[in-house]
Amino acid sequence: MISAASEESKTVLVLGGGVGGVVTANRLRRRLNKRHRVILVNREPLFSFAASYLWVMTGERTAAQVTRPLQKLRRRGIDVVIGDVEAIDPVNRSATVAGKTITADYMVATLGADFATDAIPGLSDAGRTFATLPGARQLGIDIDTITRGRILVVTAAPLYKCPAAPYETALLADAHLRRRGVRGAIEIAVHSAEPMPMGVAGVNVADAVKQLLASRNIDYVPSHQIASAEPGRAMFADGDTQTFDLLAYMPPIASPAVVALSALAGTAGWIDVDKHTMQTSFPGVYAIGDNAQIPLSIGKPLPRAGVFAHAQAQAVADNIAATINGKQPAARFDGHGGCFIEVGNGLAGYGSGNFYAEPSPSVQLRDPDRKQHLSKVLFEKDVMWRWLR
Ligand SMILES: Cc1cc2nc3c(=O)[nH]c(=O)nc-3n(C[C@H](O)[C@H](O)[C@H](O)COP(=O)(O)OP(=O)(O)OC[C@H]3O[C@@H](n4cnc5c(N)ncnc54)[C@H](O)[C@@H]3O)c2cc1C
Predict the structure, then answer these.
(1) Global pTM?
(2) Is the pLDDT of residue 133 over 90?
């Protein structure tokens, strides 16, 4: 319902200070009069840009270059609360943080996805993950020092963050080892739990990624679910065993515990939303980014990717601000987006299109070039400098 712009103060509570939360809070702040409050809650004091972790792995970024203190948002008039969201009450649009309840007129859940690494016994001890900042740094050191043997890259479940990242890891390791002059003595293999690379984007994109791997002499085995691991050996659900000198993995994901335990929990604990407005079934409550579940026409969910969290954040912030300002909320997330695939030597491919297209997503992968690599750098700068300056 549209009403005249309210003279009273409204409060918007943003749960999560990742890509979705930071973009939502900033955009709201720009569109709302100062009498309205924007509160952002995050567990850690630092924002961390996961899309640059693989550049930390290759040594092209330091950890400091891909993190920013969230307190910077205070200068813009955003209230930043550092603490754990312990409970969410969508009926009353409130959350409990460090024992205190914060109640709002609008609430946006953007708490990402938890890593469920323990689902694969032994994985965290036997391998390194490129999905966390410390993991990516350590893996980079390992890739920088290995001189012979076998690198095994696995996706530990069909559902994980950023469909391109495991394939980029293999391609970037290949480029780095070639630069070091040791690639001839090191085998690289990717064993994925999913049936094809970036499968949600369709067979043509999957074939193009397979071609990228094959052209660099990287073995690829799809539909191969890892079941457990120990130092030097990975055991698979079909009874196969693979040896390795270095194991790099993408962990399975699960809905954040606090979401799964709340009334917001829908399909498998994720938050079900209207795919265009990101509204939940609770009035004034929205969910965006990795903690939202959006089924596509092919039965798979919209991939967990920062580009989608970013675009959804813009639509949600515009609609909340419009409603508070007495205007028609007309912004929509239309399912368009793209995913870079870094291949090393300053080159990247780009798979982009309409993920909401019927009867299946319409996505094309452009061959790697310098321009696309620079576009990814621009995406990084946009988040790190525009939203967190
Ligand atoms: C290695 C890697 C590479 C990637 N590369 C790309 C890429 O190139 N392009 C791309 O588009 N995407 C990429 N992604 C995916 C992208 O990072 C995520 O999809 C994106 O960050 C999702 O944004 P979000 O706001 O939903 O969640 P997040 O960015 O994960 O933010 C969630 C925030 O909520 C906080 N939080 C969680 N639970 C609580 C709690 N209980 N209390 C308080 N705070 C809490 C977390 O600490 C976190 O700060 C990559 C991911 C990985 C792991």
Answers:
(1) 0.96
(2) yes
Q: Tell me, in angstroms, the distance from the centre of ligand 1 to residue 48's CA.
A: 8
Residues 6+ apart with CB under 8 A from 359: 297, 298
Q: What is the CATH number of domain 116-253?
A: 3.50.50.60
Tell me the CA–centroid distance for residue 286 and ligand 1, in Å. 17
> Is the minimum distance from the CB of 18 to ligand 1 under 6 angstroms?
yes
The residue whose CA has the least distance to atom 21 of ligand 1 is 306
Q: Nearest Cα to 155, choosing from 244, 251, 60?
A: 251
Q: Which atom of ligand 1 is nearest to the CA of 303?
A: 19
Match 């919209």 to its residue by tokens.
302
Atom in ligand 1 nearest the alpha carbon of residue 304? 19
What is the distance between the alpha carbons of residues 24 and 30, in angstroms, rounded to a whole number? Answer: 10
Please tell me the chain's helix, strand, coil percentages from 3-state DSSP, rounded to the nearest 5: 35, 30, 35
Instruction: Using the mean position of ligand 1's atoms as its centre, give its distance from the Cα of residue 209 in Å.
Output: 24
For the chain, give every domain's residue range: 11-113+255-336, 116-253
* For range 314-323, the mean pLDDT: 98
Radius of gyration of the chain (CA): 21
Span 19-36, average pLDDT: 97
- Residue 53 CA: nearest ligand 1 atom is 1
Give the whole-angstrom CA distance, residue 384 versus residue 389.
7
* Superfamily name with CATH number, domain 11-113+255-336: FAD/NAD(P)-binding domain (3.50.50.60)
Query: What is the tens place of the pLDDT at every residue in 69-88?
Result: 999 999 999 999 999 999 99
Test site for ligand 1: of 67, 96, 161, most ligand atoms within 8 A of the Cβ: 161
